[in-house]
Amino acid sequence: MGISPHLVIMVDCLTHLIPMHIGIDFGTSYSAAGAIVNGELTLVRFGNAEQFRTAVFFPELVPDPNDFELTPDLEAQLEAQLRLARTQQRQEAAAASARGQIAVARSDDELKREALRVVRRQWMEDQTREAVASVASFQHALFGEEAVEGYLDSGGGNLIESPKSMFGYRLDPQVRKVIVHIATHILEHIRLTASRQFGTPVRGAVIGRPVEFRSSMGAKGSEQAIDILREAAAIAGFDEVSFLEEPAAAAMHYHKSLDTRQPALIVDIGGGTTDVTFAQLGGDEHPHIVRNWGLPKGGTDLDVALSLHSFMPLLGKDTIRVPQHQFVEAASVHNLPKQREFRKQNYRLIPEPFGSRLRALQELGATTRLNQLAERTKITLSTEAHYQAELDFIESNLAADTGREDFDAAIESFLQQLERTLGTVRSDLTQLPDSVFLTGGTSRSPQIRERVKQSFPEMPLVLGDPSLGVVSGLAVAASEMDGA
Ligand SMILES: Nc1ncnc2c1ncn2[C@@H]1O[C@H](COP(=O)(O)OP(=O)(O)OP(=O)(O)O)[C@@H](O)[C@H]1O
Ligand SMILES: [Mg+2]
């Protein structure tokens, strides 16, 4: 296949231009990018939007060790492996007896187990190689809302939503590889879109990072997350990358709007994490970040909580004898192992109508749909008193009517955690801020604003742009790398 002449010309033009740096907000739910062009903040446009849902769809499947099954082919491999092991054992025994020694013989069962392990490992490696090769075939990947639609339409393949929430989890080497590839795709998508829009090759980036990534390994999780992003950015063509805490980036934006120097608290409540920064801002000096705090929880946790509170009872939660954790697994769409656990359950003997409903929820794409409805319900309830979510894909005419009081009850545990975090911030501070600047998509919810206000009642609450504050600050930081 030849290279398009247009592409050659474009690449040739780009290589003669000065490479530039962009700011990237790699968000749990939404990602955005921007740069300062001729002194003006310019956001990268993804189609018609200034951000895109952090989701990728690959038509092929990412391997799951639990899918290992002995096909006739693998049976043959197992037999061959076992024959080899038996021959080796006989040879070792013969060699030992020639030396007048007795070799320790392993039982046939042990040999079989060992052979199975070898075949299984080989299978997993082959699967991963295929998955990585398909992930590398860029032209098949879809991003953002298109990714979610592609997944729901195709009835197969693999949708990865919010990969950032997995960066800090214990990952075996194969899965880590796949996650790096996913992050690479997203970063490459951003880099190419930005290069096209700015008409110059984008080679460097300041990438936002939460104070604390969602993690199953404490601080190590954040280190791993940064390594993953660094590795992915390098493969995606970024030669120079640095990281800036997301609330510090949001502070940069607020800083520009303050004429006089003042201590300020920045609270960024996003999709996956809640980040807090205390900083000296405003005036002619640079912003000075004094201290950061993080709570690894955000809007996606509210969706899960709402789903458990308002939707899952329609599927039997609190009524039938299915352990609660299975409903949690079904609601946790961003946690692939939990989703697999849920799909594996057998609900054939569950009384009706719950058995059929649970089985419908096990169909491909159904948990994603349910989660989308939970998010839509949450967003609608930030301005309306009620929302009726249609659950036709579970059962015709099934609907969940959710009121604001349900939302209040569902998110109470998150609100308490938020309150505790802000309480810690308050007691850690030696000087109170002059203002509290609130940003992040979840800060659109009036209940959340209320709770932040209650923690700092004596200070004005300044509402920033909930979606674009972080990327704007990152763009400013990136322009400083350009020496602009
Ligand atoms: N009106 C609303 N009420 C409540 N939540 C909302 C509203 N609008 C959007 N959200 C939520 O905001 C979250 C996304 O916020 P944001 O874009 O700041 O997150 P992110 O940057 O992707 O995540 P993070 O910074 O945690 O990595 C989503 O969970 C979304 O559902
Ligand atoms: Mg964010």
Description:
The protein is of the alpha/beta class and 484 residues long. Helices cover 49% and strands 18% of the residues. Strands 1, 2, 3, 4, 8 and 9 form a six-stranded mixed beta sheet that branches. A hairpin with a 2-residue loop joins strand 2 and strand 3. The longest helix is centred in the first third of the chain and has 29 residues, at 108-136. Bound molecules: adenosine-5'-triphosphate and magnesium ion (MG). Adenosine-5'-triphosphate (ATP) binds next to helix 8 and helix 12.
Search tags:
6-stranded mixed β-sheet; binds adenosine-5'-triphosphate; alpha/beta; binds magnesium ion; 18% strand; globular
Structural Rg: 26 Å
> First CA to last CA: what distance?
41 Å
Strand content: 15-25%
Count of helical regions = 15
Largest sheet: 6 strands, mixed
Stretches where pLDDT falls below 50 for ≥5 residues? 1-16
Name the structural class: alpha/beta
The rough form would be described as globular
Helical residue percent band: 40-55%
Count of beta strands:
16
> Which ligands appear in the coordinates?
adenosine-5'-triphosphate, magnesium ion
| Average pLDDT for all residues | 89
Short description:
The chain is an alpha/beta fold and about 475 residues long.
Topology record:
Elements: H1 5-15, E1 20-26, E2 30-37, E3 40-43, E4 52-53, E5 55-58, H2 72-98, H3 108-136, E6 142-143, H4 144-154, E7 158-161, H5 173-198, E8 202-209, H6 219-235, E9 240-245, H7 246-256, E10 262-269, E11 274-281, E12 288-295, H8 299-311, H9 324-331, H10 336-344, H11 354-362, H12 366-381, E13 386-390, E14 399-403, H13 404-428, E15 435-439, H14 446-455, E16 461-463, H15 469-482
Parallel strand pairs: 1-8, 8-9, 10-15, 15-16
Antiparallel strand pairs: 1-2, 2-3, 2-4, 5-6, 5-7, 10-11, 11-12, 13-14
